[in-house]
């Protein structure tokens, strides 16, 4: 409903809800006052990270289709509708994390359409909680996390890179930067050559925007020189810089595709980063290599830093996590469960 009690139009199945302003002087406003140009709508949409936008659009399309087939109203949906939809997702055996995302997407679309706080989620979350417990009792596990890459694993992976080739040099830099930056895939593939600068103490890497930098103010991360020739960030950077120079790429994307003819192409895609990291882990014989992803580099950076005594706040800032991020705390607990183990010195 708008301020005059008129029902706001619901979007078509799968359509993103429009953004409605709250009128202050309803009698003076006309339709023009509530109109957004296509360019403005696009900018508003782009204010949400692309991955999140795609995921929410997919979840919203699935929800609205289900509502249409079930004879239910998608916008505004009732708490009963959301709870029933959640239960249907549980019956379909979807992962709890996917169901959490579906609930978040429905709530976000309602907020964008002027229905802040709707639909209520208590019943839906109780149904999801019961589903999680049933999965656990049946032998299922919670959300699986990519295992962290340790320094030993990183060196093993770099050692299988053929540093006499362009691909080997690129992959080495990808691995070393990924761990040293605690970098997200999106941050790594977005790096420009000019974002990395060698200084006396190592490298300074500018991250222009990130998941937690919603206003894209940017941040410069310092990476010290390494002590091992295989994994020294400066050496890896210099080797790859030579390749870029020889190919005439004095600006533009840092990490690039390389075709079978040895020609440098455009930027690597995020999925390609995952594939490269996993393939190198398999070739290096890293334990549980089939579960390794690009996120293992980010997790590994935080894990090895904490094991080396780096304070949590410093790790969170370096990795561009929110100060009280539960993700960082999970990495820390993984170290503490062995370092501060109650059974370590009891004489078993």
UniProtKB/TrEMBL annotation:
One of its GO terms (biological process) is DNA integration. InterPro entries: CB, DNA_brk_join_enz, Integrase-like_cat_sf, Integrase_catalytic, Integrase_recombinase_N, Integrase_SAM-like_N, Phage_Integrase-like_Recomb. GO terms for molecular function: DNA binding. It comes from the Bacteria. SUPFAM superfamilies: DNA breaking-rejoining enzymes, lambda integrase-like, N-terminal domain. Keywords: DNA integration, DNA recombination, DNA-binding. Residues 34-114 form the Core-binding (CB) domain. Residues 144-345 form the Tyr recombinase domain. The keyword DNA-binding applies. This is Integrase. It comes from Nonomuraea jabiensis.
């Amino acid at each position: 409903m708008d301020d005059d009690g008129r029902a706001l139009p619901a979007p078509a199945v799968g359509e993103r809800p429009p953004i409605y302003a709250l009128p202050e002087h309803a009698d003076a406003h006309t339709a023009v006052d509530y109109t957004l140009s296509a360019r403005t709508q696009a900018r508003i949409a782009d204010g949400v990270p692309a991955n999140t936008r795609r995921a929410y659009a997919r979840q919203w399309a699935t929800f609205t289709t289900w509502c249409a087939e079930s004879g239910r109203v998608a916008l505004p949906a009732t708490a009963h509708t959301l709870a029933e939809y959640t239960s249907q997702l549980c019956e379909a055996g979807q992962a709890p994390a996917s169901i959490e995302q579906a609930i978040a997407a429905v709530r976000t679309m309602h907020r964008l359409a002027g229905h802040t706080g709707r639909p209520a989620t208590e019943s839906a979350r109780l149904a999801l909680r019961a589903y999680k417990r049933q999965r656990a009792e049946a032998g299922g596990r919670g959300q699986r996390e990519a295992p962290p890459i340790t320094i030993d694993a990183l060196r093993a992976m770099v050692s299988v890179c053929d540093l006499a080739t362009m691909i080997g040099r690129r992959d080495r830099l990808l691995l070393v930067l990924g761990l040293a930056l605690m970098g997200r895939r999106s941050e790594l593939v977005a790096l420009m050559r000019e974002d990395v600068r060698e200084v006396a103490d190592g490298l300074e890497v500018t991250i222009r925007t990130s998941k937690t930098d919603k206003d894209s103010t940017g941040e410069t991360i310092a990476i010290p020189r390494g002590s091992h020739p295989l994994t020294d960030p400066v050496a890896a950077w210099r080797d790859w810089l030579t390749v870029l120079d020889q190919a005439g790429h004095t600006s533009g994307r840092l990490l690039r595709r390389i075709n079978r003819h040895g020609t440098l192409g455009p930027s690597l895609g995020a999925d390609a980063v995952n594939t490269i990291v996993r393939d190198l882990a398999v070739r290096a014989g890293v334990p549980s290599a089939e579960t390794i992803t690009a996120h293992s580099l980010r997790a590994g950076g935080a894990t090895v830093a904490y094991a080396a005594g780096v304070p949590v706040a410093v790790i969170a800032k370096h990795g561009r996590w929110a100060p009280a991020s539960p993700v960082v705390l999970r990495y820390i607990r993984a170290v503490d469960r062995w370092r501060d183990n109650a059974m370590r010195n009891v004489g078993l």
